[in-house]
Amino acid sequence: MRPTWRRVGLALFVLAVVAGSLVGGRLQALSNDTRESLRLYTELVAAAQESYGAEISYEDLVYASIQGMLRSLDPHTAFLPPKAYSGMRERQQTSFFGLGILVSVRNGQLTVITPIDGTPAAQVGMRAGDVISLIEGEPTEKMSLDEAVDKLKGPKGTQVDITIVRRGLSEPLEVSVTRAEIPQNTVRLAYMIAPGTGYLQMSDFNRGTGDEVHQAIERLRGEGMERLLVDLRNNGGGLLDQAILVSDQFLPDGSKIVETRGRTRDSFQVYRATDRYPELKLPVVVLVNRGTASAAEILSGAIQDHDVGVVVGTPTWGKGLVQTVYNLSYGAGLALTTAKYYTPSGRLIQRDYTSFYDYYNYDPTADEPTDAVEGTQPEGEIFYTDVGREVYGGGGITPDVHVELSEVPEFGQFLLGRNAFFDFAVERQNGDPVTDPAWQPPADLIDAFGAWLVAQEIADATDLATGLGDPAASEFARRQIHAELFNAAFGQEARHRVLAQGDEQIQAGLAQLPQARDLLASRAALAAEGRLGRRAAQPPDAEREKAATAGSG
């Protein structure tokens, strides 16, 4: 094992050191200084492995040293060990083979959140709230979520034996489920949230996102969609080519979507909309928050800069570094930063990362443009959209309309942490099921919930008096129970419809759709007069010189 890992360690370290010189699959020749440094490195690893005061493997030493080296570059360059690299590639695929359930660990138990319609799990009658206690006879209580999911997946057509504990049944259910192809959808929800208004939620950008968005938009058009609310909150991004394909569907042909600028000639690229998909040409509002990053910021920035939509929410994360992924030996990978993303108006998406601590412990309330709510100008370098609106640089996308979400009441957070709403809804649905989509919570629902909390020893009478006695907490509990009951009865879309009624950002987004319509009309009028243009800030002199040297890309 030792000689093997010495060789593997040296190979991986060499590849990481010289990854920037990968051209056409070849490595540039190493200098004498580099060779001496690598020799010193291998001697250091050998000494640490042989003489350190605790047991440590070559693998741990090599991986830790590589991660330490890459951390000195930027926050997003990363070495991917074989398992992590394989997992990343799998997440980017459009499908996998499995059962078709959303699962989570609730109260220390592997719990079904919802089965996906039409999948093997739904066909064998699995329900929300089912606890998977055994997989192939192995208890799940000590498995991590990833370990359990890996065991549920497998080759198409193979069977997996699972044991289910269901509330209301005295004995566990033993079920054999045949694995099938399960779409790995990134368009998590697409439905008519109000008459004439579509709602589309994207979780990330994988290999099928462009087509998924196109299909969802066409379906919603067929249902009478006249305006669209796009939810990019907590969308951490993904593949650049899919961000381009999605943006293409919202922008006029030829519009700049994003520009990349880096150190090498081929890192200077401009990506534009084509006619691959028909342009939406409908009023659009985009919801963003601190969890909106990377490819999702490319999309929201392009929509804002070209005035084809209004952005609502809170400032985005500010992840604008381009990662090129290299295949390394032994199944490993390297995500290496090779350029930076700029919006069509010239704004750098990447937030400052001079201090890694400040970058990862970012407090958005410290520099959010809260003054914009009061009508004064937020801070930041000024750029201009197509119709001449001012937008602000400094990292991330600053929304046109700033809207915060209200804090969850303290007692509500307590109950969420104990899975109370979900468990109560599952138990109630098993005993007195909701079958009518028009069902509304009865007046005594909170009283019944309070009695259940006491019976389950989650809260006592004093807790209930101070907790649910707060009207905000009581209303929050009512909506959460309503949503979880609808999830158990009708699925995730029905759950979301209920929660959307109390989501201030969704409600503000719906209220901004008339402004989005007016903005689209202003753009069209200026275009008809030939006055549509952009006064985008130019890149700094050094960047401009590089761009001139590199050519158009």
Helix content: 25-40%
- Molecular shape: globular
Give me the side-by-side strand order of the main sheet: 10-11-12-15-16-21
Number of helices, counting only DSSP H or I runs of 4 residues or more: 19
Alpha carbon gyration radius: 26 Å
Mean pLDDT: 86
What's the CATH superfamily of the largest domain, by name?
A: 2-enoyl-CoA Hydratase, Chain A, domain 1
Largest sheet: 6 strands, mixed
The CATH topology of the largest domain corresponds to 2-enoyl-CoA Hydratase, Chain A, domain 1
User: Structural class of the secondary structure composition?
Assistant: alpha+beta
Could you name the ranges where pLDDT drops below 50 across 5 or more consecutive residues? 15-28, 368-377, 536-553
Provide the β-strand percentage band. Answer: 15-25%
**Count of distinct structural domains:** 4
Care to count the β-strands? 21
Oligomer: single chain
Report the span from N to C terminus.
47 Å
CATH top level of the largest domain is Alpha Beta
The CATH architecture of the largest domain can be named as Alpha-Beta Complex
Question: Please, could you describe this protein's structure?
Answer:
The radius of gyration is 26 Å and the shape is globular. It has 4 domains: 2-72, no CATH class; 95-183, Pdz3 Domain; 187-320 and 337-402, 2-enoyl-CoA Hydratase, Chain A, domain 1, CATH 3.90.226; 410-502, no CATH class. Helix 1 packs parallel to helix 3, helix 8 packs parallel to helix 9 (295-305) and helix 12 packs across helix 15 (471-490). It is built from 19 helices and 21 strands. Helix content is 38%, strand content 20%. The chain has helices spanning 2-17, 32-51, 58-71, 82-91, 120-123, 145-152, 209-222, 240-248, 295-305, 356-360, 410-417, 420-431, 445-455, 461-467, 471-490, 492-500, 504-511, 513-528, 541-550, and strands at residues 78-80, 95-98, 101-106, 109-115, 131-135, 138-139, 159-165, 173-178, 180-183, 187-194, 197-202, 227-231, 256-262, 269-272, 284-288, 310-313, 321-327, 333-342, 382-384, 390-392, 401-402. The protein has a 6-stranded mixed sheet, sandwiched between helices. Strands 1, 13, 14, 17 and 18 form a 5-stranded antiparallel sheet that branches. It has a 4-stranded antiparallel sheet with strand order 6-5-7-8, with helices on one face. The protein is α+β, with helices and mostly antiparallel strands.
